[in-house]
Protein: Hexosyltransferase
Amino acid sequence: LHPIKKPEVMKKIHVHALSLRLNELRAKRMTLQRDLKRATQHSLNRRFTNTTTDVQNWDYMSGHISFCANQVNCPRHTTDVNMMAAVNEIIVQLFDDFNANARQRGRILQFQNIQYSYARVEPRHGVDYVLDMILWFKKFRPPHRATLSVRRHAYVQQTFGLIETITDRKFRQKLSKRNHIAEDDGLSSTDSTIYLIVPLKGRPSTFQRFSDNLLSVIPPQEKKVEIVLVFYKSENETDDNIIKNSISELSHILPVHVIDMTNKSFNRGQALTAGTAILPTNALLFFIDVDMIFKYDTLERIRLNTIMGVQAYFPIVFSEFSRHSWSSLDRDEQRHFSYNRRRGYFRHFGFGIASIYKQDFDAVGGFGNFEGWGLEDVDLFEKCISSHLRVLRAPDQLVHVYHSIKCPSTMPTKQRNMCIGSKTASLASLDSLAEQISLYT
Structure:
């Protein structure tokens, strides 16, 4: 009888065995490459720097908390999932190597936990780790049988492999083959029409800035960009008339589809859903707000990073702080595309700006039915994560221009807490707050 009764367990063991074999082949290839290059003795310093600015900082990790420098979310943040997964894979590989000849040596090592660890990325070479581990050292040969708890440091280097080139078409075909839902004719192309779906209620000056930005960045020969404006009437008829004039000016350059929501109360999720309803199933949707400005390159990345049936794109936007907290030099500068830590921050936990094909948007379930401010973007992001789609997140040339936020007490508790959190995070940088506190100490 076979010792393993469950097929799913057998499959996991088979995958693990293949992973071990793959690691052996990779290590053998790396050894042969070193021999060919007549590499020097192994060292944690694979790159020698001439200035302190060239030194790669180590990230310190303890438990689920990381401490870093000169990066986003520094100095303290929750350890990234990919880093935790990488450390776990390293531990498995280390102890597989340690115990490869356990029977002949008469001892076995078992992992307990990691006290702390360091990690750094050398862009041209690989990733370096220093792991402080607690492990069990077990001797099982008589008469020296013993079990000891010992502490050891492991110095690990994960070297990058050689660069392999692949054409864009082959890459996209490989992506589509990973999922049975994707079809060859559903692959995104660089000439897909992008539909910018914009909800709007009042705020004529903000919409005018948004329109001016569109007219300045989109070249006249670009015929594959259309605007879907979901328009709510405001309490001020003058503001609505100004907006209609701006729409008229914009429509001379770009196709503008206006959906009139009349006197309904503003709801972003419902507005975006109404905007998608008039579009074909193969439409490339780009959900955006009037507070955003961007460059033309962003549209190209939307086309490249959004793949029908395979991938949705949630760009990381740069959100400006209140101008009152800026330095005098920053206030004098008119450009919004200045990524100064005193001017703003990259919003890693904002999901309101997104691009996805309508077919995939409908497949994941669209926006949930939320009243008032917030949560509809998080709901869509979680649905995409749970679906067959891959989700790509990366910083892009999208800037959220600061505006005041109101969080009325009538909002649901969860949404109000998110609203207050977003409001306080956008007031000022930590540097500015530290300067203000220093005035009273």
